[in-house]
């Protein structure tokens, strides 16, 4: 009996030590950073730009119109993406922050709450260091949505205040199998859902979450993003490549008073 108790105590001590070491490692670890080269090929004196596609719920084996969607994405890539180099002509124009939102949604223990606190601190530190003109946060779960899952209250409590404080421009997510554009009423943040890369047409709409809604589409599609130093262009496409919704934002250059 005493031997079993000793083994249990030893296991708890090992687990506690591992968790302590994890906290120390997490606190010292730096967030990973990756650079995306800027397009240096322009037409008609267009400004240098950064372009990418946003697609969620990517199906398998061509199911749920995946093949048709892939074809349209390829056409869009041909039209808007060009060869690029490592030239950093638009350094600090845009920065994308990837957040693992699952722990926020499924936080059930004291240990998980500590991990979340560290995650929030890391995100805030990254925001403080950022000099980018465009700040984009990407997570799996929606902050705002009228789709099947609706608003995510945990992210509204923990993440949204940071986005507002540090002037984040866009929050992009999947999770709901639809396309959405919702504007925040209290800040410039735009909530963009692109989770319609495969299975869609769920038919479950939470109309009570419609405050600030600009666009909603329940079918398959994807989203494109094009950024220049002072302008952002967002477009939503259906499975046939038709533009369903477009939105532009222009940031005025900051002029020095000196």
Helix content: 25-40%
Our Rg estimate from Cα atoms comes to: 21 Å
Structural class: alpha/beta
What is the count of β-strands?
10
Largest sheet, strands/sense/barrel: 6 strands, mixed
Order of helices and strands: HEHEHHEHHEEEEEEE
In round numbers, the mean pLDDT is: 77
Strand order of the largest sheet: 2-3-4-6-5-7
Strand residue percentage: 15-25%
- CATH topology category name of the largest domain: Purple Acid Phosphatase, chain A, domain 2
Specify the CATH architecture of the largest domain: 4-Layer Sandwich
Ends apart, CA distance between termini: 79 Å
Could you explain how this protein is built, in words?
It holds the Pfam family Metallophos. Residues 1-29 form the signal peptide. One of its GO terms (molecular function) is hydrolase activity. This protein has 258 residues and is α/β, with parallel strands linked by helices. The chain has 2 domains: 1-30; 34-250, 4-Layer Sandwich (Purple Acid Phosphatase, chain A, domain 2). The protein has helices spanning 2-28, 66-80, 102-105, 110-129, 153-158, 160-165; strands at 50-54, 94-99, 134-139, 170-173, 179-183, 190-194, 213-217, 221-227, 231-238, 243-250. Strands 2-3-4-6-5-7 form a 6-stranded mixed beta sheet, with helices on one face. A 4-stranded antiparallel beta sheet has the order 1-8-9-10, with helices on one face. A hairpin with a 3-residue loop joins strand 8 (221-227) and strand 9. It is globular, with a radius of gyration of 21 Å. Mean pLDDT is 77; it is low at 13-29 and 78-90.
């Amino acid at each position: 009996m005493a031997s079993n108790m000793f083994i249990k105590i030893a296991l708890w001590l090992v687990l506690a030590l591992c968790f302590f070491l994890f906290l120390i490692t997490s606190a010292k670890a730096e967030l990973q950073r990756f650079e995306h080269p800027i397009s240096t090929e322009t037409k008609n004196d267009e400004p240098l730009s950064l372009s990418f596609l946003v697609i969620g719920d990517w199906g398998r084996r061509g199911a749920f119109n995946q093949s048709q969607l892939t074809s349209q994405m390829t056409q869009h890539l041909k039209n808007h993406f060009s060869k690029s180099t490592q030239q950093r002509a638009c350094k600090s124009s845009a920065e994308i922050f990837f957040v693992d939102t699952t722990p926020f949604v499924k936080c059930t223990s004291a240990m998980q709450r500590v991990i979340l606190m560290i995650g929030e601190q890391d995100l805030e530190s990254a925001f403080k260091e950022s000099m980018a003109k465009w700040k984009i946060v990407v997570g799996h779960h929606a902050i705002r949505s009228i789709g099947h899952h609706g608003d995510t209250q945990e992210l509204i409590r923990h993440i949204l205040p940071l986005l507002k404080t540090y002037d984040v421009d866009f929050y992009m997510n999947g999770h709901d199998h639809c396309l959405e554009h919702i504007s925040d009423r209290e800040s410039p943040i735009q909530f963009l859902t692109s989770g319609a890369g495969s299975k869609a047409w769920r038919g479950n709409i939470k109309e009570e979450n419609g405050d600030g809604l600009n666009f909603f589409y329940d079918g398959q599609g994807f989203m494109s993003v094009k950024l220049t130093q002072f302008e952002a262009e967002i477009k939503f496409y259906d499975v046939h490549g038709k533009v369903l919704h477009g939105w532009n934002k222009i940031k005025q250059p900051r002029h020095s008073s000196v």
